[in-house]
Amino acid sequence: MSEIKKFLYVNRKAPYGTIYALESLEVVLIGAAFEQDVSLAFLDDGVFQLTKGQNTDGIGIKNFSPTYRALGDYEVTKLYVEQESLDERGLTLDDLQAVVYEDEDDDWEEKPSIRVVSRAEMADIMADQDVVLSF
Amino acid sequence: MSTLHTVNKSPFATGSLESCLAHCKDGDAVLMIEDGVYGGLAGTAVADLVQQKAGSVAIYVLSADTQARGLAADKLLQGIKGVDYDGFVDLVADHDRTQSWL
After folding, report:
1. Domain A6-134 belongs to what topology?
2. Tag placement on chain A: N or C end, fewer CB within 10 Å?
3. How far is A131 from chain B, CA to nearest CA, in Å?
4. Rounded mean pLDDT for each run of 10 residues along chain B, 102 residues in total
């Protein structure tokens, strides 16, 4: 078994205007099979990927926002969201959907996957990775 | 431990350069490529921001991309270094990770 590396997927684009957000999610799900230490970062327009109440019926594109809630089942449990990016867009944590995971080390207690961090903390998280994949 | 950041978008079209500069750490390097090289121009709306960051972060432009766009060396901010493709490879090799700001 090779050593576990820290992978960060950086999401900086809104969900439906370009294919980046969906592609990132697909790669995260594929990458989950490799059992690495995975984190996701949402900053700039990337924070719009996690808003609640998305309904794509009118635009003929699959609404992939529920898929974020499945990430916990793939042991992807660290979704870092940048506070300043939320602020700039008039959003608060309440505007985002709840994403939770079951913590196997704590009697499968349900815990939030979304962790709001400052821009400075986000910079620290980025600098702490072995591999950074940008979308 | 340091990071090479690449920026390939014009700072006048997206916030990629600004976001990059807001997240990079002292000792990191920023390499402007493709339309990102416009971020290296002097006298622009982002010039002060770039110049200010140039003290703690090494800033490079890919020379092939500046030349392709007719950006002469004397149009670039002071302290910005041009690199060729081999220099790009060296930068990747000299840093612990590379992060693209798309």
Report:
1. Hypothetical Protein Ychn; Chain: A, (3.40.1260)
2. N
3. 6
4. 97 98 98 98 98 97 98 96 98 98 97
